[in-house]
Write the structure tokens for this entry.
Amino acid sequence: MTGKWITFEGIGGSGKTTQLNLLYNYLKNHSIEVILTKEPGGTVIGEKLRGILVNDLDIHLEKLSELFLFEADRHETIKKIVEPNVKAGKFVISDRGIDGSIAYQGFGRGLDIEMIHYLTSLATGTKKPDLTILIDVDPEVAQQRIASRSNVDIDKFDLEKLQFQANVRKGFLYMAEQEPKRVLILDGSVSSEELHQKIVNVIKCFSEDLDIL
Ligand code: TYD
């Protein structure tokens, strides 16, 4: 089988992690070799970077330093997880990927989009996901979902105001507009089960190798 790199994107509270886990279990149950990873935090070094970037509320990074650290995490994930596993013919499913920096550091924080594209291309060696599933939800709905969660890690970005989340959403939609063949928008307001079925159908159409599904 040909290996594939699939990323899930969306604002916090979009339901992407739930959907990613459902897809992971589905593929495993159908004997597909699949690796789950995430950005930031998919590698040993990435876990440390995640603490700084996402969880530690006492650390206030400069915008550019924040971007550099996301790109460093990304480079580690590409080199240590994505490239070797895709080469070995496996599916690599990632909770977030390259579009996060355009959405959060670009549309959210206001850094220059072309500069982010350039740094990301250095981090990835210009490799892009084969498919990106963008789960799109209204930021107000997403914030209500986050507020009703219990026992989750603190995420600095989820604590940002509604306007920030709305800008981030625009950033993801911008990427879908720029790269419609790669980034597929799915409505995240439907039930979890309905969305899962849609994602399974997308994966089936996407990979001809998966006729066993
Ligand atoms: P994640 O663990 O997916 O959190 P959640 O599922 O709660 O949204 O991602 C951690 C945070 O990192 C998320 O709030 C968005 C942020 N992020 C960026 O700001 N830039 C990036 O390039 C990436 C990959 C993530």
